[in-house]
# Entry
Amino acid sequence: MEKIIVTGGIGYIGSHTVVEFQSAGFEVVIVDNLSNSDIKVLDGIKNITGKKPIFYKADVSDIHEIEEVFSKNKDAVAIVHFAAFKAVGESVQKPLMYYQNNIQGIINILSQMQKNGISNLVFSSSCTVYGQAKSLPVTEDSPILKAESPYGNTKKISEEIISDTLKSDDKLNVISLRYFNPIGAHHTAEIGELPIGIPNNLLPFLTQTAIGIREKLSVFGNDYNTHDGTAIRDYINVVDLAKAHVVSIQRLLEKKNLTNYEVFNIGTGKGTSVMEIVKTFEAVSGEKLNYQIAKRREGDIEQIWADTSKANEILGWKAQESLENTIKSAWEWEKRLAQRKVNK
Ligand code: UFG
# Structure
């Protein structure tokens, strides 16, 4: 069985990706420092696949910890690197913490790959690198704008570090996936998003409001230049997103027509407004959502969605799940979390 190291594999996107790798027949080694995740997720993964991944509690930004993991897993064929801080607002408050963690993390991963002769990497990037694009949908060739936040800048700089490293080392092959907005949960409701504290993102805040943890959802801005005035994003099902990592690794391993650095947009290709999300949630859950229109959130862009033709053509990947089923899965997960609290 081919072995893959997944950093941040206990986190939201990471855990769904581990499930897809195990289901595709890979052996998974998770490296996670549990700074924003819960070790119980390992049980959720095992409940789905019947296999518990190998787990190391280690911090990717700590070279000694990461060296030890690599020295014990020299037989890995590839790395999927998720482990990073991801809160846009927090990154504005604590930029050095973000640069230290996210940049040191990618440097350590690349240098350990070189040292141990592991040549394949899939890197978690973000559509944040496009900022507010002038022309929509965005393709991988759309201009990269000045980052709106230190978090966004860590993704932009990481992509540059990867690209520069590959120019100096023809043994390494990397695919960066630029995610749009991941939402939803595994259909079994065994794993899902586990926000710590008050969620910043729309879907967890919305489902927490519907279940009664939050009083009211604020819809940030209804005066945007969009069909209903609310902001537009490309919401991608987290399991579909997870599958994009598996096909990327398969491409790296096959090496057919591969160039050593490739970048793909991973979204649905469809833009959805905040109000459409609210209405879809009400329709699929049968719940009435308590919401209010509030002023725009600082730093938000107006609208973005992906052109996904490159991923369709080269990776053979396409988002499959409907928005309705995806939002339903997020709601089933929120209800499962509530049930767990009652049973405690
Ligand atoms: N929104 C609300 N109310 C909320 C939360 C969000 O109306 O309580 C709106 C936002 O204003 C935005 C949309 O819902 O219009 C989506 O907001 P999210 O916070 O869920 O997601 P963002 O698009 O702001 O951020 C996401 C990722 C970031 C990434 C960014 C790139 O979370 O990591 O996309 O655009 F950097």
User: Anything to note?
Assistant: The radius of gyration is 19 Å.
